[in-house]
Write a structure and sequence with these properties.
The chain has about 425 residues and is an alpha+beta fold. Helix content is about 35%, strand content about 25%. The protein is built from ten helices and 15 strands. It has a six-stranded mixed sheet, sandwiched between helices. It has a four-stranded mixed sheet with strand order 8-15-14-11. Strand 14 and strand 15 form a beta hairpin.
Amino acid sequence: QCACATPTAIPLSPLTSGGDIPLSFAQQRLWFLEQLEPGTATYNLSKVVRLQGVLEASVLQQALQMIAARHDSLRTSFAATNGEAVQVIAESVPLTLTLTDLSDLPVNVREEEANKISYACANEPFNLLRAPLLRVRLIKLSPDNHLLVIVFHHIISDGWSVGIFLQELGTIYQALLAGQAHALPALPIQYADYASWQKATLQGDELARHRQYWKQHLSGIPALLELPTDKSRPAVQRYQGGHVALQLPADLRSALEALSQREGVTLFMTLLAAFQVLLARYSQQEQIVLGTPIAGRTRTETENLIGFFVNTLALRGDLSGQPTFQGLLQRTREAALGAYAHQELPFEKLVEELQPTRSLSYAPIFQVMFALQNAPRAAMQWGAIKLADVKIPSHTAKFDLSLDVYETAGGLDTRL
């Protein structure tokens, strides 16, 4: 997705002075949610990868320590000082590779047991006061078949970061195996530098410019997308959920891309408009507000950093006046481009500014998420070792409904 942000006059450079390190706006929200409801795994980010090939676990452990030394975020915990949350960066932390050997179990039991362990690992809460806010587990199924379970707390990471982590881990592992120094370039800044820069940048005229756009864009939106449900909404969200997956064939993807090209829009915009039409039919509402994630890495300095950069944009779908689908596509394009140009305003700040009616039973501003997932993927090969994604079941949902679409060679994979 587009990263067309207005350049700012304040340079993004390493911090020179000591003192307390502030949280970014996104981190502040997760810190606040943790204080409201401590000890949940709602904001755990997990990734399970199958490693096929002979693996040296001790070398992988070394690679983990090196990646923790490289990224300050992997050594960061959080504390409250005079009522304000601050980032605490340790000089070093033991990033332990926990090994579980299932190779002695009967073949038909191994995978089932590995799935149970992966699920338990992914759903174990973190304590934000203690670093690292990352756990890595290696499950041995046979000498040349392992599962690598990686779990971050979202406050130090995002989907893009998981790709960086896997990519760099593979690069460092292969270099160590070959007895060489890794060739990863030095990082120009760390996440704490970005958090401080964000706080310094987003104020005064710059804040007012973004605030004015969003207030206008979201003026008069309904508080709630009224989807018909089989049961009444609970008074307090429990974040319990499930998922269904559906694959859209390659010929449908080609047709959607051809339509997008004809209308001068992106595939994201076409899929978003179609989803808005569907939701309008079910809700009988003409104004549909959906949330969508955007990488939030508008500066080249942030491209290879592990940290929480992703922002959420609230995109308004206007289906008033019975537009044709082509007409709706143009409205969607305009809304998306406007949002991209004002993406620097964090969603947390937007909620603060708009002060919508707050309810513990639903999310403010939007309750449905849509994402075309196109974050960079790690190379699925570490030398002689092949990597393959492993899906573990998830029983949490942050919103009423989330639709994720993944571009694949076979078409489009969707997860609802």
